[in-house]
Every structure is written in structure tokens, then in C-alpha cells.
Amino acid sequence: MQTERQRQLSTAEERRDTVLRTAIGAFASRGYFGTTTTEVAKAAGISQAYVYRLFPSKEALFVAVVEYCFVRVRASLEGGAAAAGGSSPEAVLSAMGDAYARLISDNDLLLVQMHAQAAAVSEPAIRDAVRAGYARLVEYVRGASGGDDRQVQEFFAVGMLCHLVAAMDADKVDAPWTRTLTAGIRHY
Amino acid sequence: MQTERQRQLSTAEERRDTVLRTAIGAFASRGYFGTTTTEVAKAAGISQAYVYRLFPSKEALFVAVVEYCFVRVRASLEGGAAAAGGSSPEAVLSAMGDAYARLISDNDLLLVQMHAQAAAVSEPAIRDAVRAGYARLVEYVRGASGGDDRQVQEFFAVGMLCHLVAAMDADKVDAPWTRTLTAGIRHY
DNA sequence: CCAAAGAGTGAGTGATCGACCACACATACC
DNA sequence: GGTATGTGTGGTCGATCACTCACTCTTTGG
Fold first, then answer.
1. Which of A30, A152, A181 sits opposite B138 (nearest CB)?
2. Cα angle B120, B180, B109; round to 5
3. CA closest to B141 among chain A residues
4. Residue A124 forms contact with B (CB below 8 Å)
5. Cα(first)–Cα(last) distance of chain B, in Å?
6. What is the DSSP string of A78-98?
7. Is the C-beta atom of A7 closer than 7 angstroms to strand D?
8. What is the pTM of this model?
9. How does pLDDT run across B110-159, given as a tens digit for each residue?
10. Contact present, A122 and A38 (Cβ < 8 Å)
């Protein structure tokens, strides 16, 4: 029987995609400095040595993960904007916020963003990636929503507040101060 | 000549203070995971071994640094509130924001805060310190300003936006998106 | 069927990490 | 002066880090 032989090995391109997807979970808890390439390899189901076949360095790997996160965030905002149609800036921004809240109901994406910002201070390559990511994000939000500077700024300020809430797991604490910080922030 | 013999050795308490002050600069760029105890020791002018005489572990040291940062932030806000007298919530919050902006004109304090938030995800002791710090800060801002939930939340949201701006060194980039994010944010 | 190219790994490399100990020196107290 | 206590360091520990190399197995194409 001449059955169509199934491939056992993935192509390098497929593996790179797998690594990018799974590395988000690996980097989420301990960030760039605190996460080892062994942990990334384990999450992707490959050997640590092969990580270095797919990416030239840990830094390049992390930068690729960060860029991948920005792509997903942007795709999520596009979905939100599309759902809102061409209505008022307030409505579009609200729909975007809602889509973003759904995207990060699993916190990993958000945590990687936060760790990337922290690592951006000392690692120029990461800083460039974060800058480029936010540059595209800000301009996209401005264009798609039609909001003014103040509205766009508030949109990102609230997003940053989400980072703080998620990092502290403030949802788990029932107190006046957490209710103040999380007021009006959607959570799925 | 019986001159008053000068002490050559510091007391452990003085050394601990020195370490806390200087460790802010050490932890600022690479955070909890990325900063070595050797770097902390060098910044304080003592041997790495002695760091472990003064603090039981790297984690306990970092927690102490974070708590020290919160104390300084709170003192700064108190100064701002005092300068504003007992005027309207908006005026007090503005004065606090101004005092805070002066405090972090040197970015180290702000960067440590950001790194602490990031490390809080995986290190329970750090998370507790960050939670406690923000709990006190939120309640203090609420009480001293007399602002409502929305005003207090916005105060901290803008603060978080400051973190992002500082991490990316967005001031150094002259572009529409950086102007949007940094609009109205004081900087000394 | 065979050879070139690609996928994938075990077993390391030197360097560096957090932590620790034995020991030297300074101070305080009697 | 002597001794108990506190300040401070050099040297080193096992573990672990990012990264590399030699090698095996699979797939492709003629």
C-alpha cells in the first residue's frame, strides 16, 4: 500500500511559529532576564540547542516574541474597530477596549508586554521593538477611531493601568483601593 | 594629642541605609532578575559577601528597596499636598502630580517601580510589597486630595503612562505618537 | 538508490550566579 | 588590658546560565 507518507519533522518555519506562540507563556511570568532558553525550549517541545538553530540569540528570540505580541494586539484592535463600524470615536474606542479585554483575558500577552517595557530600559534592541510597536499601535488607534490626542492618550493610560492590575493580581484582593483602580475595567 | 577618635566602621544600620539608597540605581536598569548582588555591592561600596550579612537574600533585599521607593514616593506626594493647602481635589492632585514629576526627574525610582511590578508576577514576596505600597498610596491620594474614584484612578493611570514613556525614553523620539502619549505630562 | 540538504539533539563549553564560611580587624565594655 | 561583640572581606561552593559542536536521522530530488 502506497500511503501518502506523513511528514514527521516540521519545517524550520513551522517550528519558529510554534516557538513564538509558546514562548509567550514562558516569558510571561519571569520576563526576559528571568526566563531561561531551556524553559522556552520545553514549552515548544524541542531541545534547547535547537532554539539556537531557529534564533541567533536569546535577545533576538525575545524581540521576535514581542513583535508577535504587538501583531496580535493590533489584530485584536482591528477586530474591535470593525465590529463598531464607522460610529463615533467614543464608540470605536470602547469597542477596541472590549476586544482588547477579551484578548488578554489570558494574561500572558499583557505580561510579556510589561516585561518587554521593563527590559527596554537596558536592552536597545528590545527598546526599539517596543517603540516601533507602540508607534504603530498609537497611530492605528488614532486613525481607526478618529479620536483626538486626549482620547487616544487616555486609551493607552487605561491600558497601562490594566498592566498594573494584572501584575498585582489585584482582582484577587477585595479592598477599596483595588476597586478604585479597577473601576470600569472590563475583565472576561 | 587625644583627638576624638573618628569611627572608621559604619554601623550595620547605616550600611543598610546606604545599600537601600544606592541599590535603586543598581536595580533601575535591569531589574530584579537582571541585576546581580555583585552590582548592588559595588554601588554601595562594600563586598558582595557583606550584602548577605545585611540582607538574608536577594529577594529580601529587593523587597526592602521597593518598600523604600514607596516611602519616598509617598513623602513626595505629601509634600505636594502640603504645598497645595486645602484647596479643591483638582488642585491637590495637580500639586501631587507636580511633586511626583520632580521626584522622578531622575528616572531610577520610576524604573524600580516598573521592574517591581514585573517581578511581582512570579515572586510572591515582591507582589505583596507592591500591593501594600499601592494600597497605602491609593488611600493616601484619595484622602489627601478628597477626589472621587474616577479622579484617583486617572491619577494612577497617568502615572502608569509615565512608566511607559520613561521605559521607552519616548522623550528622545520626536514623532506624532510620542507627542500624543506624553501630552500634558510634566517633565523636569 | 544514493547523495545533498535540512531537522533535531546529547553532551558539553566557560562564565557567572546566589549564597556561604572561615577569618581579620575594629569597637565597646569591664 | 583583655575579651566579647560587631564590621567587613577573600575565597569558594554547587548550580545554572547562554551558547556551541559533533553527530544522527529524515526528507528531497534526480
1. A181
2. 35
3. A177
4. no
5. 51
6. HHHHHHHTT--HHHHHHHHHH
7. yes
8. 0.93
9. 999 999 999 999 999 999 999 999 999 999 999 999 999 999 999 999 99
10. no
